Amino acid sequence: MTLVIDASVATKWVLSEPDSDRAAQLREIENDFIAPALIVAEIGNAIWKRVTWKEIAQDDAVRAAEIAVSLLSRLTPMDDLVGRALEIAVALKHPIYDCFYLALAERERAPLMCADGPLFEKAKKLKTVEVRKL
For a tag site, which of 46, 105, 107, 119 has the least CB within 10 Å? Predict the structure, then answer.
């Protein structure tokens, strides 16, 4: 089964966070993970924060980012999704960067797996996308 993965799940694959064990289990069950290309920047930003907080060494951070991205089967260019992502953002009154994931899930008819509470709650209002909480 194809799943759209948001950055809140992908970072749990490589960083010790609440529910990291559940994210790891997901990788054992499924293996076709897709995301908008934006996820690369979001994963990098989450890992960068850990470096600045001195929770992870820079070399380990670089490796973690590379591993997280390598676990994704396909990245979709953002320009392929921008129109629909903006429509969803306006409809949900939610930041567009999260809506790229929703637009991709809608287009691919694939569930969105997320660990982001606010996104999950907003996405439940969108009847064209199945959203699963990690």
Answer: 107
Q: Decide: pTM greater than 0.85.
A: yes
Domains of the chain, start order: 2-133 (3.40.50.1010)
Torsion sign over Cα 91, 96, 98, 99? positive
Instruction: State how far the Cα of 26 lies from the Cα of 45, in Å rounded to an integer.
Output: 23
In the block, residue with structure tokens 């637009």: 103
CB 89 within 8 A of CB 65: no
Q: Is the per-residue pLDDT at 30 higher than 80?
A: no
3: region left, alpha or beta (phi > 0 left; psi from -120 to 50 alpha)? beta
Rg (CA), the chain: 14
With contact defined as beta carbons under 8 Å apart, do 86 and 96 qualify?
yes
**What's the per-residue H, E or C state across the chain?**
CEEEECHHHHHHHCCCCCCHHHHHHHHHHCCEEEEECHHHHHHHHHHHHHHHCCCCCHHHHHHHHHHHHHCCCEEECHHHCHHHHHHHHHHHCCCHHHHHHHHHHHHHCCCEEECCHHHHHHHCCCCCCCEEEC
* Res 69 pLDDT > 80: yes
